[in-house]
Amino acid sequence: MIFERKHIISTKDFSRDEIDLILDRAEELEPVARKGHLDLLKNKIIATLFFEPSTRTRLSFDTAVKRLGGSTIGFDTATSTSIAKGETLFDTIKIIESYADAIILRHPREGAARMASEISSVPIINAGDGAGHHPTQTLLDMYTIRKECTKGIGDLNVAIVGDLRYGRTVHSLVYALSLYGTKLSFVAPDQLKMPSNIINYLKRGGIEFFETSDLNKVLEDADVIYMTRIQKERFPDPSEYLKVAGSYRITTDMLAGVKDDMIIMHPLPRVDEIEPGVDSTKHAKYFQQSFYGVPVRMAVLSLVLNAEM
Amino acid sequence: MTTERELRVKPIVNGTVIDHISAGQALNVLKILGITSHTKSVVSVLMNVPSGHMGAKDVVKVEDRELDPEEVETIALISPKTTINIIRNYEVVEKFRVETPRSVVGLVRCGNPNCISNTNEPLESRFFVESEDPVRLRCSYCEFVLETELAEHLL
């Protein structure tokens, strides 16, 4: 079993075969994720250490553990723990590894999960490290694309829109999609363009991509529109944020010329990137996408803990 | 008659001649060696010396001192073409070019202020060397890439 006791830190650590394996397992577990229960993690204790607030990620991990018959310990704010007294993450991990069979870690510092994986004897699952990685978000995005699109991942044209500079989810997603040869379009204002290291990576790999600041240029050909929030909290200078806030918004009127089977995704939470009227159209898949976090996280947990189906 | 060139490279009895330093990096080499205005050592610093290969180079001569491997490794990060000459009794007993290591541990501070290595965690900074000349370092924790003003990030 290639995932047994493996740390899940970055999507970059995965091959295409490994991603496929996780998505296949998620497919098997999806009926259980909807309304079921298995004992795959019976007698397993999973620690959820959330050093910064999160709603969907924490609750979907919690749901995933409980759907698989396991139990959770942990915290969702560091203020009520020894961390508030100055305890290091190093010490926290060394203590919790003796309590739990796996640790799900969300931390505001980039590289926190990588450090934890080097000292932990139990698998670390990165649930977001600052602006670094959030691998299970990418995996659920990939799962959504695979489930909700009528063509294979490699045959799609995926347009990613919004904050491409600071958005950690899109960087990992681009990496994962590139493994499948997916055609990519990037829509962002100049200040928020995709970083050069990712552009160079795509060029080196011969991956086809297109950059523009005009959302209308990609609507007609896109199979997937992946909207992202322009994140106020990532801007060092608030005046720079105001220049680009609200740059892109999908409205029902804009859907007139799109492909019949085009889907709209969003990692959520949204602010005003998607008009509420879009929610009731066949194109809206972002709430479904959010649900898919449960089977995907069930898949990851069952694989790293070698829970045979 | 003594030429200007001979004056610049006047031999030392014992010590180290650090040659082919990238122009402008001599003061950073002194910083790496911990040489300050309070030093008791005899130190010669030549800056922007014409060089056939490099156009211009810096040279540092430190008398009665040989460098340790960590100092040599650190010099390689800011000046990868540097050569080290060990002098004993006026003779060059060893001459070698610095080598950029494959990884750099505990020598450089990550340029990402939000990196876990810039906290009070009990860990040393660690970088993979992505490119030797010019030197590009990638933090093995947060993946931040350091490629300019490396000298400012030396620990």
Automatic annotation (TrEMBL), chain B:
Keywords: Metal-binding, Pyrimidine biosynthesis, Zinc. GO terms for cellular component: aspartate carbamoyltransferase complex. GO terms for biological process: 'de novo' pyrimidine nucleobase biosynthetic process; pyrimidine nucleotide biosynthetic process. Residues 7-99 form the Aspartate carbamoyltransferase regulatory subunit N-terminal domain. Binds 1 zinc ion per subunit. Its cofactor is Zn(2+). Zn(2+) binds at C110, C115, C139, C142. Residues 104-147 form the Aspartate carbamoyltransferase regulatory subunit C-terminal domain. The keyword Zinc applies. GO terms for molecular function: metal ion binding. Involved in allosteric regulation of aspartate carbamoyltransferase. Belongs to the PyrI family. Contains catalytic and regulatory chains. This is Aspartate carbamoyltransferase regulatory chain. It comes from Methanooceanicella nereidis.
